[in-house]
Amino acid sequence: MKTAMATVCIPGSLPEKLEAIAAAGFHAVEIFENDLITFPGTPREIRERCADLGLAIVTCQPFRDFEGMPDAKRQRAFDRAERKFDLLQELGTDLLFVCSTVAADAVGGVDRAAHDLAELAERAARRDMRVGFEALSWGRHTYDYRDAWEIVRRTDHPRLGLILDSFHMLARDIDPSVVANIPAERIFLVQIADAPRLQMDIVSWSRHWRCLPGQGDFNLGPVMEGLAANGYAGYLSLEIFNDRFRAGSARSVALDGHRSLICLMDDTGRRMGKTLAGAVSMPPPTMIEGVEFIEFSVEDGERAAFETWLSQLGFVEAGRHRSKDVALWQQGDIRIILNSDPDGFARSYQISHGTSVCALGLRVGDAAATTQRASALLDIPHEGTIGPGELAIPAVRGVGGSLIYFLDHSEGLARWADIDFAPTGRSTTGSGLTRIDHISQAMHYEEMLTWLLFYTSLFNTRKTPSQAVIDPGGVVQSQVIESGIDKGAGLRLVLNGSQSHHTLSARFVTDFFGSGVQHIALATSDLAATVTALTAAGVDMLPVPENYYDDLEARTDLTPAQIARYKALNILYDRDAAGIFLQSYTGTRDGGFFFEFVERAGYAGYGAANASVRLAAQAGRARPRTIPRA
């Protein structure tokens, strides 16, 4: 299959859109009618521009309200079609995109639609052109692709074919299995779109909430398997109407779009045990086995304070880098790297973002294979400066320009700490922290779908339903991604974004000068004991409002003694059908970063019921922002 993208998917002027689509590696483009109308040049200039960029033009779409028009309007519909044929010829393409009519006065019936489309196909043949017919999910009479196929089949004209759109099928829960029985040569174009499951009218759903494959809740597998089964090898095109995309970067959305199709074809081929035509060869997505390390870039003047904080949390400096100003701190299975080296990636990251998390080290089954898959998915590789005897760890760019390193059990990568760091011999009793429970990344709201796709396409993951969390400054959208947690430590990752500039996550992105890790949750088997130790060590803990504990007493069966203990230690409580969850937080450092401490007992969630309480407590302690006077 060849890849294409409709210009409606991305923001910008038509020339900017074409350049972005070409730069992302697409084979072709669908010109959306509004983009053509607002272009100050001629259609021939668009054709020449696309040719210079190496883009074929699939069609200029859509052509509306054609079939079934009453006699008084029928000739006018054909006149409009002839003018559209003229335009398509000037653009250098041969496909007239006809979507099923929504006109209130249109006449229904398969025979009438087939009659009109047969005549249109005959007119197209005289111009050496084709007609593609699509069933809009809100069409007046034809809203099911199976009915559209019956119209095309009954017409039996070689210049008339079917246009399929996954959204129009799946939004109405129409069975896509018939796709496999449609001859591939009668399918002229396939448009692919995902979407979240929402309760709203289909038109609004389609025009505002479509998203790229893998970013929504639709099961695109049966649609793709049907196309693979019938041997379809034409264009697989993205037609995405999404308000987030219109507010984003054209190049970023286009790149995401190509990545989504690469992943979709790879996933389909693996399920079917065959390689799809046009698919990119790559290793399968890998499960994340755990977080090997979290690396902070630390400004030299802040190093002492940060080390004091880690010591109070129960960490010990376990190793010093053999050639750089880098230290390894450890407690249990948690490894934190502090990097204050004056040269290299961490230094440039610190200059841009301040003291912050600049890299994550993830343990996977095969680091080389993961790197190959990342490259095939158009992720950006990173090669840093390697000193004598230092280990080269493969990495790609992640959220906010940070790095994600891949480590595995192979000789060398499994011994990264021993190779790069000289042990200090120091030890600590610690505070009971054992491992990393989850990592939370704050980002611009418009970026959330980009990074969701990044993680889900590269790794073997499970995503939970998106949730809206109430912050005193607005609503925060939260999306959880999990990998490998059923087989061990794995990775739990929480993506947060907000359209409001006043939420804690939005303020973090602003103060941090970009997206990044806002907080890290560390696990303990006894949170009360851990918090007691942290408090005794002088750690600034986040106070919880007293009203929270009054409410806890009213809505739970906790004893007064348990509630009193949680209140004294500022511990939050939640439970689900499987168990309980306890949480506590440090105060927020300059820049907005903080640690969370959790105790799980069978509980699978993240304390969503407590999120608004925590956010309100943090907002109450946040430094006020100065509002410029007019």
TrEMBL record:
Domain VOC, residue spans: 290-409, 435-587
> Which of this chain's residues are annotated to bind a divalent metal cation?
E134, D165, Q191, E239
Cite the EC number. Answer: 4.2.1.118
Which GO-annotated molecular functions does the record name? Answer: 3-dehydroshikimate dehydratase activity; metal ion binding
Q: To which protein family does this belong?
A: Belongs to the bacterial two-domain DSD family.
Q: Which UniProt keywords apply?
A: Lyase, Metal-binding
Membrane-spanning residues: none
Q: Is Lyase given among the entry's keywords?
A: yes
Please spell out the taxonomic lineage of the organism that makes this protein.
Bacteria, Pseudomonadati, Pseudomonadota, Alphaproteobacteria, Hyphomicrobiales
GO biological process terms on file: 3,4-dihydroxybenzoate biosynthetic process
In terms of HAMAP family, this protein maps to: DSD
Record keyword Metal-binding present: yes
Identify this protein by name.
3-dehydroshikimate dehydratase
Known catalysed reaction(s)? 3-dehydroshikimate = 3,4-dihydroxybenzoate + H2O
InterPro entries hit by this protein: 4OHPhenylPyrv_dOase_N (IPR041736), DSD (IPR043700), Glyas_Bleomycin-R_OHBP_Dase (IPR029068), IolE/XylAMocC-like (IPR050312), VOC_core (IPR037523), Xyl_isomerase-like_sf (IPR036237), Xyl_isomerase-like_TIM-brl (IPR013022)
Where is Mg(2+) annotated to bind? H438, H519, E596
Pathway this chain belongs to: Aromatic compound metabolism; 3,4-dihydroxybenzoate biosynthesis
Q: Say what the protein does.
A: Catalyzes the conversion of 3-dehydroshikimate to protocatechuate (3,4-dihydroxybenzoate), a common intermediate of quinate and shikimate degradation pathways.
| Organism of provenance | Candidatus Raskinella chloraquaticus
As cofactor, the record names: a divalent metal cation
Q: Which Pfam families match?
A: AP_endonuc_2 (PF01261), Glyoxalase_5 (PF14696)
